[in-house]
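Input sequence (168 aa), recorded before submission:
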Amino acid sequence: MFTITANTRRAKPEDAGAIAKVHEVSWKSAYAGIVPYSALARMINRRDVNWWANAIRKSTLILVVEMDNEIVGYVTLGPNRVSTFPHEGEIYEIYLRPEYQGVGLGAKLFADAKTELKRRSYKGVVVWVLSDNDPAISFYENAGGRAIANGSEHFDDKKLTKTAFAWD
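Predicted structure, token format:
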């Protein structure tokens, strides 16, 4: 019998390559068939190793989750960007490599992100999710989130609805 442990920690500049790879494979998995291919490809290509290294150096708050010293997921978080919401914190994005989804790592990373926001004295958390992303909707509903608002985003000529989930 053996034990596999997962460790969450703050991202370092040398993690940029691994984060870029998680970003690429998770976005292809999550958004294929939802976001138009060309828009998705541009968004993924824009976030290369240099983009992530620069974000980390500029103190963007990024946590990574590791298994056996390999980065398998990340979360970005900080202050809420919608001033009309009473929730002060926001989880901008949370992604895992597809082969690590469904085993509790997303829940761990999400809980650790909420803890980090609370540690920074943010009251409440909001997350936006594309409304066609059924697995993400289920994840946030199962995590106790409640839908508080809808919005939309354009990807090339396609308009997609998004939903904000919140936790007090």
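Checked by second reader. The CA atoms of residues 114 and 125 lie 7 Å apart.
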